[in-house]
Amino acid sequence: MKYSPRSDGRKFIIPSFFFIVALCVLAFINEVRFDSLLSFGRCALSNVPRNSSSLEAPLLSSSDEDEIRILIGILTLPDQYQRRHFLRMIYGTQDVPAGVKIDVKFVFCNLTKEDQKVLVALEIMRYDDIIILNCNENMNKGKTYTYFSSLPDLFNETDAPNPPYHYVMKADDDTYIRQESLVASLRPLPREDLYYGYVIPCPSMDPFVHYMSGMGYLVSWDIAVWLKDSEIPKKHLEGPEDKVFGDWIREGRRGKNRFNAKWSMYNFPEPPTRCTHELWPDTIAVHLLKNQEKWIRTLNYFNVTSNLKPSKLYHIP
């Protein structure tokens, strides 16, 4: 019988063709399965909460989580012009993350002098960052109540977001607040029934025992609305304002979500007390900056001028 190489070649080519086809079909099936598994995995992960916390936080979309609106009310006096200009520099040069809105307002009671009526009016025309409450100037006789309870009516524009602010803060004018750190600490926290700050007494770490220090405490917007409508604070206005505020929260059974920001909030390290802490990177607020030397030491520590752009117009060694 005569041998034919062409016949053997055909025998080899035909099985090889079907083998290649089979491989292609198998690869296609596996790709479909992989895509299905990948889609399933994405769906499962999208249902896992980003943060686990014992606090009761409502579910938010990613865009809602990124968007935070905060009002910082710095309680001060009408005649403190220099302090306000200084604080405008401090807060006006801080960067905040995208999607975050922080409004810093200076808060005091009715004007009583002719020069105040001119100078404060000029400030408002230039900066638009002042709230004048309808009250007589005081520290511990209801000014804090007037501030919080006035907010719902002051910010009730129909075309504004609802709520206008997620959080509202009361701060002293000798407190340095690092806004980016404040925002980072608030991101995982609830936006309802929240009471946040530096818990008093100083050695305590339990935010449910007493109250938050007046250096700077923050509540969610719904608590400001409650203060406006409740009769509880109206019966008890006088006394150390931070302690009285804590009394309102306790008697009204508010603030079921609490956050103790100690030791990211603390008093300036000198003179040392049980409320002080050394300056350190994990800082949200430093309190009792009573003179320029303490302010400069604090600002130098946090290197606040690092973003100064070089220019031929100045030389700062």
UniProtKB/TrEMBL annotation:
Q: Where are the transmembrane segments?
A: 12-29
Classification via Pfam families: Galactosyl_T
Q: In which pathway does it act?
A: Protein modification; protein glycosylation
Q: What membrane topology was assigned to this protein in its record? A: Single-pass type II membrane protein
Superkingdom of the organism of origin: Eukaryota
Q: Which UniProt keywords apply?
A: Glycosyltransferase, Golgi apparatus, Manganese, Membrane, Signal-anchor, Transferase, Transmembrane, Transmembrane helix
**Subcellular location per the Swiss-Prot or TrEMBL entry:** Golgi apparatus membrane
Q: Does the keyword Ribosomal protein apply?
A: no
What does this protein need as cofactor? Mn(2+)
Q: What is its EC number?
A: 2.4.1.-
Q: Give the EC class as a word.
A: transferase
Q: What is its main location?
A: Golgi
InterPro entries in the record: Glyco_trans_31
Q: Which family does it belong to?
A: Belongs to the glycosyltransferase 31 family.
Query: Could you tell me what this protein is called?
Result: Hexosyltransferase
Native source species:
Brassica rapa subsp. trilocularis
Q: What is the lineage of its organism?
A: Eukaryota, Viridiplantae, Streptophyta, Embryophyta, Tracheophyta
